[in-house]
Every structure is written in structure tokens, then in C-alpha cells.
Amino acid sequence: xxxxxxxxxxxxxxxxxxxxxxxxxxxxxxxxxxxxxxxxxxxxxxxxxxxxxxxxxxxxxxxxxxxxxxxxxxxxxxxxxxxxxxxxxxxxxxxxxxxxxxxxxxxxxxxxx
Length: 113
Description:
The protein is of the alpha/beta class. The chain is built from five helices and four strands.
């Protein structure tokens, strides 16, 4: 399955730390030869606004500090048929935009169960 579009929604408490991650992920995407023809959109929004934004995205990634809200966030994601995962805390702490972008791609390409 070819990847033609990847719209990633990062959710966290207020959006500040994931805002930094969005910047890093966009840098990686812009400098990646294999992603040059892919429609990429990456945004961060507070978890409380998930319902307002989820429709425009392919995958939802949750900041590790929001892991305790995963159940409620998963309920919303399921209503919209969107995959959702908690971001790897080591990658998040190291601001490793490449690994997190790779995880988003794998989420998008994973066949539905």
C-alpha cells in the first residue's frame, strides 16, 4: 500500500510540548526523500478538543503524559474509526521526531484488524 497522505494529530494536555514535537516531525518529513510526494499534515491539540479535530486526521498519537486518559481518548478515536497510540516515552523525551513519524506511518499502514 503506497502512502500518499499522512495526517497526524498529536494530543496532549495543553499542546506546548507536543508543539515542539510537531516542529521536529515536520523537519524530518521535509528532509525525507521518501516522503517528498506525500501529503503530510501534523498538528498538536489539547486532548479535550479531540472531537473537534479528529475527522481531519488519519492517526492520533497521545503524549505519554496523557496515558492515563487513553481509555476516554480511545473511545472517541473508535467512534471516528481512527487508530490511536501513546507515543513512546523515550522518543518523546528525546524529541525524536523521526521515530515518532515512523510510528505514525506504521499506524497508518497497519491493516485493520
